[in-house]
Every structure is written in structure tokens, then in C-alpha cells.
């Protein structure tokens, strides 16, 4: 009797577990199909020079409009892709789309940078730099206009390999940014050790600087430190004018956030670039 109860309990547990994994497997199968049938797309969020207000770069962010479930956020399906073989084709897809779009903007006379997110997985993949180099060649985009965003967790998961991969990427002329800076560990030590080009201060610090004095101190001193080390800084999560004002003292700072624009289509970025260009044209005439 007890053995039977135990068996029932286990099989109930197994069934539940199966349901979960069937769901996961289904979503994974759907993601695989989505990659093959071109059901994913890429949106772009402006990164704005806080002094001039001009768009100097855009970050490519992947989107999935699931046929049955509607839009699924990257926070849900990127981890799924990371735990399967799908993260490489996903990154390849985003990189290819983003570089094709960047080549178009360059051809139109806009000298933007393009930021693309890498997954932690890629930092232990010694073939990544060659793949990135091939993608740049395919679209004839100068390496210096591509910024690859990596997270602190990505670096820490295999620090030695990540070091090799990051150095190789920078050797081909690509820039490397640390994304979500401040949310991981030992930030300072590898800011010193690693040669990186850009630091993105995580939005959890930036969002509250106008009413949390501690966050303000952390953000201000992080920006100062990075700039003093010759590292470009992007403040993430700028949601309102108040935040812009608090950060107005820095000579060279880039902002990203809903205050400027959320992630939008390439066509909407083009419109933004056109209106920035005509605004600067009229201000030149005013002089
Ligand atoms: P992330 O790289 O830190 O990207 C910034 C995220 O913050 C984006 O969310 C963006 O929409 C959101 N965001 C931007 N401005 C604001 C703001 O002012 N306030 C708030 N609350 N949020 C803001 P999204 O697009 O949902 O992406 C979430 C994360 O998913 C990304 O964080 C990145 O880690 C990952 N991800 C997105 N696209 C890709 C991709 O193509 N490849 C990889 N490996 N990961 C990606
Ligand atoms: Mg990012
Ligand atoms: Mg980020
Ligand atoms: Mg993030």
C-alpha cells in the first residue's frame, strides 16, 4: 500500500515535471521553427549623446511574435535558447540583420554604431571572433562601428576563455561593452584588468538617481571612474527629464531609455535620423 502511494506520488510528480518539460520542449521547437521561418525580428533602441541630443548608436534587440501566444519577450526565450543549441543561430540572425541595417544607414550617410548583445555562451566560444569578422566582411561594415555587449556573468562564467575571446574581438577592431554594469560581482577588478571600450550602467541604478542619494553617488562615481579610465559610458534606463538634468554635468555621456525612445523599427530610427539631420541643418543656418 505504502509502495503504491509512493509510486503514485512519484508518477504525479513525474507527470507534472513532464508537463513542464513538454511545454518547454514545445516552446523550444517553436523557437527553432521561428528561426527557420524568419518569424523573429529585430528592433532598435537609440543611444543619445546627452549633450547634443543626437543619436550616436542603436542597440539591436530581438523580438518574437509567436503565432499562437503573441509577443514573447527576450527575457523568456533568450535563456531558453542559451540552454539549447539555439543561441548561436539566434545571435547569427540578430548580427546579420543588424549589420545589414547598419550598412544601409552608413550608405545613407549616418555614421552610427550598432550594439548587439552576446550571450554568456559565446564568451567561451573560441570561433566567435572569426564568425563576427565574417559577418562584418559580408556587409562591408567597419569593425569599429560594431559594439558587442557582454554581461559580467558572461565574463565570470569562464574568465580565462572570456579574456581570450574578448581580446580576439578587440584585435579585429570590434568594440566590447559591459552591459548591466553594477549588477554582477567584482566589477572593479576586471574593469582594471580587461580592456573594454564601453560600460553600460545598469538601469536599476540610474532609474532612481533623482530621489535616492545613494544611487546618485554610485552612478556619478561610476561614470567619473570609467571616463577617467578612458572608457565610454552609457547610462541605461533614462525614463524622464529629471534624470537627464541630474546627469547634465558630464561632458561626455550617452543615454539610453524610454525618455529618448523605446526600441522601435528600423524605419522609425531612419525617421529620427532624418529629423535630427534637418534640425542640425536649420541650426547651422541660424548661426
Ligand atoms: P539589455 O541588453 O540590458 O537591453 C535593455 C533592455 O531594457 C531592453 O529590454 C529594453 O527594451 C529595456 N529598456 C530600455 N530602456 C528602458 C527604460 O528606460 N526603462 C526600462 N524599464 N527598460 C528599458 P528587452 O528588449 O526586453 O531585452 C531584455 C534583455 O534580453 C536584454 O537586456 C538582453 O539581455 C536580452 N536580449 C535582447 N535581445 C537580445 C539578443 O538579440 N541577443 C541576446 N543574447 N540577448 C538579447
Ligand atoms: Mg544590452
Ligand atoms: Mg543592459
Ligand atoms: Mg539586461
From TrEMBL:
**Superkingdom classification of source:** Bacteria
* Boundaries of every EAL domain copy: 24-277
Q: What is this protein called?
A: EAL domain-containing protein
Q: What is the lineage of its organism?
A: Bacteria, Bacillati, Actinomycetota, Actinomycetes, Micrococcales
